[in-house]
Amino acid sequence: MVEASQSAERSVDDTVLDAARDCVLAYGVRRTTMTDIARRANVSRMTVYRRWPDVQSLIGDLMSREWHQVLMAAADVETGGSARSRLVSRVVAVAGQLRDHPLLCKIRDVDPEVLLPYLLDRRGNGQDEMLQFLAAALADGHEDGSIRPGRPDVLARAIFLTTQSFVLSVRTVADDVPLAEFDRELALLVDGYLRPG
């Protein structure tokens, strides 16, 4: 009985998050209201407010969910080879998927101030999850000897910072260079940084 109740709650949460995504894609973050989201989700405003106190917290959870899905899709990329080569392939896959993700593109283009706290002041849940993903992959690379010695948490942060610039800032320097070339350069950077000796 408890499991069915939790499943129903999860279903309502996902319905509301889906509606929030649709609203942000249609109007942007600033023009999205809790009323818009509730209406699109076909639930009462109280249902939404019981779960999230405001649009900002709802959008934060939406971004965490969307980035989690990108991360899980990249974790399923089968590349074979060493832990280092798997990590490099997955980092490039995540960067490309995030760079082209409709939600991130909309926020970056219409409401970039939403991203500023996550770039300048604090990490969000999605960023923490990515750092954990990287640290675990780095530990695997230490085990098979394909990644140089170093604290996995520090190496993960350095890779994260590098990759973040390839996701959010690449348009400022791309000009007429195809994005696939930047993906190759990111792979070379990460691989070279992690290669032993």
What would you call the structural class? mainly alpha
Give the termini separation: 56 Å
Strand/helix succession: HHHHHHHHHHH
Identify low-pLDDT runs: none
Beta strand count: 0
The helix tally amounts to: 11
What fraction of residues sit in β-strands?
under 5%
> How much is the average pLDDT?
93
Task: Give a topology summary.
Blueprint: H1 2-27, H2 34-41, H3 45-51, H4 55-75, H5 83-99, H6 102-110, H7 116-120, H8 125-144, H9 152-168, H10 170-174, H11 179-194
Question: What do these coordinates show?
Answer:
α5 packs antiparallel against α8, α8 (125-144) crosses α9 (152-168) and α9 (152-168) runs antiparallel to α11 (179-194). The protein is mostly helical and 197 residues long. The chain has helices at 2-27, 34-41, 45-51, 55-75, 83-99, 102-110, 116-120, 125-144, 152-168, 170-174, 179-194. The radius of gyration is 19 Å and the shape is elongated.
Question: Keyphrases for this structure?
Answer:
197 residues, mainly alpha, 11 helices
Q: What's the gist of this structure?
A:
The chain has 197 residues and is mainly alpha-helical. The protein is built from eleven helices and no strands. The longest helix has 26 residues.
